[in-house]
Q: What sequence folds into this?
């Protein structure tokens, strides 16, 4: 978790862009893709996104490591749509209750591609954006309250610690005779107990961290920023890129005659 | 506003307490009361006193982080910093607490140091100048100190480095008062010296006032010029407030007996403990580790492949024998705790094997990691470093009865343990509300209630006062003589001297070697 959020070693071009510009581009693409259920717009966006990988320092290997549950979920979603959706066109495969037709296959494929095309920009954003830079941009540029933004940022650091703590508490409780064995009821009880232990530790840690932050003067009205969040020419290109990908996807689908709004 | 004089000096702060007291919200008695104390600008004070004397409360108050006007906590008398309330003077005092993990706020070293200065609205250029200076001052930028870059991830620092980073963050605020609340209690001996020396250097440079709370007097004795001993505030009837006050040598000689009785680690004092009987050489083998490689991480899934974790330590062999002590030592990061947990059947070894002799396993199988939880506790008991991790009920008595109830026997032993570890008066208390020493004694008692033949302890003496230390060491020496095997992970030489037995020293150098192997494979 902590390693995944660490950008050290990633010097790709998009790491230098302002997080808000990247966020705007991602938002545009996701919005457009959420409007239609055809496969042409999804494929167009997907191809464009794959082309952006090097700019964000993402590789297919890294993508698979970080997002394999998402990719598998998209594949399963697409597959089940293909076999369950109402048949239309020639039937390609028929196994009793389930059948795959040209129409349902197209729908399933579109579903899978769109799932990936919507998820990928978010993964790209995470790959090339440091949480601290994002917080800086949110507080300085988007003018969100700094108490909220910096509080969340500091709390996020504790999430990684909690993963380690969960493991330690699990072992510590096994050493007391609370095991993950027995019937489902006992297991649920053991997990609840472990969660309570984690909750107690999380609250203690959080209150100590709050004291640390307050003792460093956090929570006052005026504050300065050691890191200035700035926009550059690159950010214009990032937003423009988002517009081009979104518009390209729509135009391709309309041109191919496959564009269909989800609500129709 | 902090007043900055050039050349690194700050205007040191003065502290005046007049009949000051504080009751926390929801508590019946005040944590501290009737405190009269004056600390002159630039003085360096070591604050001592039994647990419950309100030392931390005083430091929190001076840091201006104690309570709000809204909650129902209660303040009496006055406590002033340079004649004004500490709460209204952000950045005038900087506070370091015990747990290194919660002293770090942000994820990059430079940003973390800058955090306090940002909050005080210091101009940007000035902030970075201060960040560089502060990191130099605490020695984190020298090659020996780690040579850290500004974007170094704070999660990759050792405990001692984290505490020095916290000190740098405090220094960047240019405070007139530095408050340290048991800053080295969670550190290994090397980390303790790192932090102590960094504090000394920074004080020499800035001339700030210092108030430090710490059990281990010898660490701070030469750095401070005054020792103040507080009375327990909750004791109520006696005269509360300051008990003793003066230069270190004077206080330590005048009150040596009293301080020792209060469990303070006075220099040159090793508490008396029960001596061990001579060990029998042909003791029964209970548990053995052979060429074991250990890691806390589970095998990872990378796509469809399963990758074993990189071990923190490999090729370790050890034998655990009835009635004999095994002490695991070595610097931080050597995988001492990880090895102990693997030996205790709580982690699966990455390589090699841990096997239990028939005398220990009694039909449960050879591999302790495969034992069921209730099979494990009656054979190998493990006491974790943080007692709270092991509490599973809401009452001290239930906590002790928990193991015997699950096993269906051994409940008669509970009273004896309560008595022996001085917990009888606490049977109805909530384990989480106990003091540090009480929690430690309880965690040992709960594990022993299941009557294991092997006892594994992870840093049992960390942060303990001298009284708890002596009780624990004596109690374990008794257990050893009665035939229990005791495995302890510790930095504490005096403690391992009391227990005797064999020492297993682990060095982190093995880590680099095993990394290379893993990379080559």
A:
């Amino acid at each position: 978790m902590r390693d995944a959020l660490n950008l050290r070693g990633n010097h790709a071009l998009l790491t230098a862009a302002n997080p808000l510009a990247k966020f705007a581009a991602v938002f545009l693409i996701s919005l457009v893709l959420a409007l239609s259920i055809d496969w042409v717009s999804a494929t167009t966006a997907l191809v464009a996104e794959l082309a952006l990988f090097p700019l964000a320092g993402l590789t297919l290997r890294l993508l698979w490591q970080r997002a394999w549950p998402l990719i598998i979920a998209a594949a399963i979603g697409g597959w089940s749509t293909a076999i369950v959706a109402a048949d239309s066109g020639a039937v390609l495969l028929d196994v009793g209750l389930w059948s795959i037709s040209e129409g349902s296959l197209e729908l399933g494929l579109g579903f899978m591609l769109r799932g990936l095309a919507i998820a990928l920009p978010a993964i790209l954003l995470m790959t090339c954006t440091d949480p601290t830079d994002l917080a800086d941009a949110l507080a300085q540029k988007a003018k969100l309250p700094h108490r909220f933004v910096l509080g969340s940022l500091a709390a996020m650091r504790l999430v990684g610690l909690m993963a380690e703590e969960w493991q330690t508490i699990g072992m510590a409780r096994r050493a007391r005779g609370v095991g993950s064995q027995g019937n489902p009821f006992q297991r649920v009880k053991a997990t609840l107990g472990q969660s309570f232990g984690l909750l107690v530790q999380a609250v203690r840690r959080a209150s100590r961290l709050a004291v640390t932050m307050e003792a460093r003067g956090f929570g006052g009205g005026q504050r300065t920023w050691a890191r200035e969040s700035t926009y550059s020419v690159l950010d214009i290109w990032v937003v423009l890129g988002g517009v081009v990908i979104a518009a390209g996807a729509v135009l391709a689908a309309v041109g191919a005659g496959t564009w269909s709004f989800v609500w129709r | 506003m902090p007043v900055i004089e050039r050349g690194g000096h700050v205007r040191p702060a003065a502290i005046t307490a007049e009949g000051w007291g504080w009751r926390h919200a929801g508590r019946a008695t005040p944590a501290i009361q009737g405190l009269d104390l004056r600390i002159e600008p630039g003085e360096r004070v070591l604050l001592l006193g039994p647990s419950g004397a309100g030392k931390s409360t005083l430091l929190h108050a001076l840091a201006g982080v104690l309570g709000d006007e809204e909650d129902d906590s209660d303040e009496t008398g006055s406590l002033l910093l340079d004649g004004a309330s500490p709460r209204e003077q952000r950045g005038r005092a900087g506070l370091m607490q015990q747990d290194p993990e919660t002293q770090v706020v942000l994820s990059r070293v430079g940003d973390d140091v800058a955090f306090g200065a940002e909050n005080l609205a210091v101009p940007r250029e000035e902030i970075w100048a201060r960040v560089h200076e502060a990191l130099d001052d605490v020695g984190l930028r020298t090659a020996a100190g780690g040579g850290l870059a500004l974007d170094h991830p704070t999660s990759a620092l050792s405990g001692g480095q984290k505490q020095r980073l916290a000190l740098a963050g405090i220094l960047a605020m240019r405070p007139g008062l530095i408050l340290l609340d048991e800053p080295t209690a969670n550190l290994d001996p090397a980390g303790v010296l790192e932090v102590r020396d960094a504090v000394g250097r920074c004080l020499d440079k800035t001339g700030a006032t210092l108030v430090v709370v710490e059990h281990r007097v010898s660490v701070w004795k030469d750095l401070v010029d005054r020792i103040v001993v507080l009375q327990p505030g909750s004791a109520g009837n006696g005269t509360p407030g300051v008990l003793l006050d003066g230069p270190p040598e004077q206080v330590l000689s005048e009150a040596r007996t009293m301080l020792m009785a209060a469990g303070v680690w006075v220099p040159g004092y090793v508490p008396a403990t029960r001596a061990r009987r001579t060990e029998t050489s042909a003791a029964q083998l209970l548990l053995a580790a052979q060429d074991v490689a250990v890691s806390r991480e589970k095998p990872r899934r990378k796509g469809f492949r399963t990758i074993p974790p990189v071990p923190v330590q490999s090729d370790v062999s050890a034998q655990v024998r009835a009635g004999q002590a095994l002490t695991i030592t070595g610097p931080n990061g050597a995988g001492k705790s990880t090895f102990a947990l693997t030996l205790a059947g709580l982690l699966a070894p990455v390589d090699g094997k841990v096997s239990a002799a028939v005398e220990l396993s009694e039909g449960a199988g050879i591999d302790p990691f495969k034992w069921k939880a209730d099979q494990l506790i009656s054979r190998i008991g493990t006491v974790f470093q943080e007692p709270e991790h092991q509490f599973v009920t809401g009452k001290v008595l239930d906590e002790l009865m928990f193991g015997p109830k699950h096993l269906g026997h051994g409940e008669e032993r509970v009273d004896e343990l309560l008595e022996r570890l001085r917990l009888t008066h606490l049977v109805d208390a909530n384990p989480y509300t106990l003091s540090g020493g009480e929690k430690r004694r309880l965690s040992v008692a709960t594990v022993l209630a299941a009557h294991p033949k092997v006892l594994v302890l992870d840093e049992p003496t960390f942060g303990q006062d001298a009284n708890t230390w002596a009780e624990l060491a004596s109690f374990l020496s008794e257990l050893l003589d009665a035939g229990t095997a005791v495995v302890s992970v510790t930095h504490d030489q005096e403690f391992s001297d009391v227990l005797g037995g064999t020492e297993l020293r682990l060095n982190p150098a093995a880590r680099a070697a095993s990394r290379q192997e893993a990379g080559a494979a």
About this structure: Chain A touches chain B through 53 residues (CB under 8 Å). The longest strand of chain A covers residues 91-95. The helical segments of chain A are 19-35, 39-56, 60-84, 102-127, 131-140, 146-174, 184-215, 233-256. The beta strands of chain A are 91-95, 98-101.
